[in-house]
Structure prediction request, 388 residues.
Amino acid sequence: MKRFILTLGSWQIIMVTAALRQHQISRPSGDEDYLVLHGTNHSQEMRHTMQQLAGVLWDWKEIVWIDDLFPSIVTTHALPNIRERLIGRLEHLYPDEIWTCKPFDSDVKAIFEIFPESTIILYEDGLHSYVPQPYAGGLQPVPLGQPLTSIQQIARWFTYRGDYLATPGIYSRHVARFERAHLFLARRLSVPDYIRHATLVNINAELLLESIRLVQRHIDLSIISPPENGPDSGRVLVLGQCFARWNLMDWQEELTLYRAIILKLYEQGYSVLWKEHPRSAHPFFPSLAQSLSSEQLKKLDIPFTYPIELFINQLDIEACVSAMSTSLFYLSELFRIPAYSFTYKIQIPFWYTDFWRMLRLVDKHIPAYETLIASAPEPTQRAQSLVE
Prediction:
């Protein structure tokens, strides 16, 4: 059997290889697996990381990049040209199965159309896998954002509203081909309706940890500068996001939010470590470092394109804090590290449907970081002077 494994990030490669390993245990076979890497705006660092992780995690027949084959807006009109280029890139191979974590993305929907006979297997992307999706072609809310972005998005909606590839959502005939869904967080989160008719396979935690350990054994993941102990209390890891990248808030507003969170943690005696988001195009740490001292904040000195789960055992942290990172769930489920969120400080307009729903998921299942603050020891004597 030929399988095309579509993936678009470093953590997704770790997740899908755990799912493949589990499926291989239940059904040993001589499948030919082709890793097909796609997505948009991958930095050279991210491309290198994905290639490196893929090389140690599974025995691929071939690794193929197709991220250059799709226009910025994928439409049904562009499909014939995409089909010709994609089939040529894949050397006229036709898969029996297509594995993906993003069945609602335009480039993935185009691949489904190009290979209409292939069975579709889903695997977990992160929180996005638990967000309900509309059926493409239906009436969608107009996503407003910054003024220029609003005009572009409204124009796109009116231009492509009848095109199921270019508009958000899942096409019904693709859903009919979903055979299995390999999910890890389904033990904690509700599975959306579009997945429910597929056979649910719960990814085994030990197999997911085995994928992590495989990377740790084959790639030097030593932290460049081991963080020092905090001034008074335990160490807390703060995971950055990239809301500005998606026009969910202004970059300066996002910076101010992180600064306030970090200061509050430090006031309570915690040593704070900062980790940039793997897809951050404009890192926050340089600006944070200008307004916070090295005693208040330390950067976790690792390549930012690697998932934090690969390093967590080296950090000796007491807790993890973020806004709506899926790592809040993975760190608590896999490593029993307490996770806290500051979702109430994030205002995402409801018309950004997917982000708004992910925020609600975190708000429901992850305790607020004030819980961590309330359990902290007495504030440091320096707190008042630090805030001034």
Q: What stands out?
A: Residues 138-153, 380-388 have pLDDT under 50 and may be disordered. The chain has two domains: 2-133+170-217, 224-387.
